[in-house]
Amino acid sequence: MKRIGFLSFGHWSDTPHSQTRSAADALLQAVDLAVAAEELGADGAYFRVHHFARQLASPFPLLAAIGARTSRIEIGTGVIDMRYENPLYTAEDAGAADLISGGRLQLGLSRGSPEQVIDGWRYFGYAPGEGDTEADMARKHTEVLLSVLQGKGFAQPNPRPMFANPPGLLRIEPHAEGLRDRIWWGAGSDSTAVWAAKLGMNLMSSTLKDDEGGAPFHVQQAAQIRAFRKAWAEAGWEREPRVSVSRSVFALTTDQDRAYFGGDSDSADHIGYLDAGKRAIFGRTYAAEPDALVGQLAEDEAIAEADTLLLTVPNQLGVDYNSHVLENILTHVAPALGWR
Description:
Layout: E1 3-8, H1 23-40, E2 44-47, H2 59-69, E3 74-77, E4 80-81, H3 87-101, E5 105-110, H4 134-148, E6 183-186, H5 190-198, E7 202-205, E8 208-210, H6 217-235, E9 243-251, H7 255-261, E10 270-275, E11 278-282, E12 285-288, H8 290-298, H9 301-305, E13 308-312, H10 319-333
Parallel strand pairs: 1-2, 1-13, 2-3, 3-5, 4-5, 5-6, 6-7, 7-9, 9-12, 9-13
Antiparallel strand pairs: 8-11, 10-11
Helix pairs in contact: 1-2, 1-10, 2-3, 3-4, 5-6, 8-10
Keywords: Monooxygenase, Oxidoreductase
GO cellular component, one term: cytosol
Domain Luciferase-like: 8-257
């Protein structure tokens, strides 16, 4: 069995072929797609966060709205760029969204990727400390968040408060019990996956990672997952970790599917650069008739290692078409692979 969800970047553009013309469209359609995904039997609705872009940027109002409209599906991020985040404010917003959803929030975090503007986090009021990099800053923000999510008091109460306080030091409210165990780290390298395991975060591995050794993408990603699990066991955590991988997967069952994605049927991994001098490997798109797709996915070592598969969706094609994309996988592919 495998959890299957979708991952949306929430792109919007006022162009002739887009069904998502505005920020309002992107947000409202995201809610509608999550509702439809739950009705189809999918397990998760996840959203990427980008700043200064015509994409989804403020996840917690969206996640709270989805939590109020659904009852079963996991809701989450994949991922929040922690260079931009006040960890205490994040804890408050995440706690509220988790309580509204009844404990279904799965919060994916990361140090972030190249953004639309230079050092965008500076406009949000953040800068690395002396001797730190922006990646260090993101990890320090994350460590503070993990600490306050434990629910322990740390703030000295006012001796003459407006409202009566409970005894002792005060914690961030609202506190969402169990959310600390539902924090994920989007790791782009083997070393950051190991770091996440040591801190007790679940692992999110995307459709790209640092090219570490030259093997095919799925082989490198599977090795990353195994390194994460080894570090988890060595850290002595008692609960079982979760691991997700993201993939672009399209079962070609209609002429419309073939028109949109038939050209990706011979897709392959490719090499690129996210940061200057840092070589990255990008995973292929899977697009084929269902029977062929089953065979291709069965050979993906990283999918086999993960408990959760997040399907990236072309959200500008609209809610109805993306519901069809998810239904194709859930109906024609997942059962044949033993995922359902």
